[in-house]
Structures
1.
Amino acid sequence: MRVMLFTGKGGVGKTTLAAGTAALAAKAGKRTLVLSTDPAHSLADALGLEEPAYGQGPIEVAPNLWSLHVDVRDRFALAWGEIQQYLLDVLDSAGVDPMEAEELTVLPGAEEVLALLEVRDRVRSGEWDVVIVDCAPTAETLRLLALPDALRWYMDRIWPTERRVLGLLRPILRKASGVPMPKDRVLDAIESLHADLSDVRSILTEETSSVRLVTTPEAVVFAEARRTLTSLSLYGYRVDGVLVNRIFPLSGADDWRAKWITAQAVQLARIESDCEPIRVWRAGYQSAEPVGPQALAELAGQVYGDADPIAVVDTPDPLTVKRVGDDFELSIALPLVAKGDVDLARRLDELVVTVGPHRRVLSLPSALRRCNVSGAHFEPGRLKVAFTPDPQQWPREDK
């Protein structure tokens, strides 16, 4: 099963290129599903559909090509309904107006989260050879993909104690505070949501899954793509390609367009250099807007050329651990990062890595938990952290 996520700054053409890649894969005989986590739902427009078919399941838009628009209301009721009802009860006990309470209990980013649960279900169904996801713009995508890690830390560290305390003290706390305490089914719903999101993460970090970044050859747009590439690698997602869209053709250029071509050439050279060894594809301006499966497949054919559009392009693993003599080395992919941009801290059994506004808490494997951090250094595109076994925690071998 091949899973591909397309993301990029709003307006760079990620929906078109995601749909084009899907159309080309379908043309090659792969059963392909393309869906969107972007609330704008412009995927239907790109495919030439008059109306998104909400709640009807995947619809076939061309041979071997299906499109899916998730009915978020049904998904919301399944995944968030019990939790939301508890929050409504709490707000009602505090005297909050019911209409305002309804607004306050809507989960921020719910549409994107629940669409990812739909991705999980479709992948697990085994019906498809390829699942392609048109993600929300990069800021929303990064928050979304960081969520499983953040929730895992809370569920592993805090939740077991909190649930035990709630079970023992629920009657006392309710009498003392006057606020309804969550029932077991609410707590079960939270655990179920955590399990679902953990499953999503496991799918999206498999070797057959990858992210492709879409950008344009402009300094401001590529600056965001650079940050996104670093952040995705920090969270453990494999980026196997960058698609540079809307490149001016060289032929027939007037003076105005010639200046753009010159400026784009500078940015294209920078993108190729900065992203190495990640594959960079180029997509030129089209003579007409590509709408519908046939036009999208033709566009994607020009972009990928003779290359297989759904092949996993070989890229280094986002995170590796290996033995180096008597020590261990943890290696994390952090492309386009300078040493001064990274903060590293050891906290009990965890390693906290911070890059700019993004932070990842890594639960260390058993062997590294019994080690001390003895150093860290940068090699091109990777942070390498050295761990030396703690003599007090490693049994001596008889000599």
Note: Residues 319-389 form a domain with the Immunoglobulin-like fold (CATH 2.60.40.790).
2.
Amino acid sequence: MPEISAPCDAPVNIGQAAEQSGVSAKMVRHYELLGLLGRVQRTDKGYRQYSPADVHVLRFIKRARDLGFSMAEIGELVGLWKDKQRASAKVKRIAQKHLDELSQRVAALQDMQHTLAHLMEGCGGNERPDCPILDTLAGQPSSAACH
């Protein structure tokens, strides 16, 4: 006997919304609490019912999170996405600010990588207790190389 499926525009429960959007049920509730989904319909027994539009918003949020946008930025982006009269310049400003922050974080990580590589070059990793890595972490000048 063929399985009967719900129409594409039928509401879904939280588990189905989570599965369809790739977001955990816990995060679906969190996003709802933050107001990113707007008012979610409920059954007479109080169960959440998510529309296809709600699931689409959840996918939008997931993609934005995957790009590292903050929840505040995502809130702005969702609002702009829903506003058909928006100016794309507003969206670009948010994206540019985020890109600049990512670039700063990448540069900071590269600095850490170079510093750690330099410290490791000075350490032979032997049985001696002297070590410039630990000296540097302790804020002390290196007394002896790790040879």
Note: The radius of gyration is 25 Å.
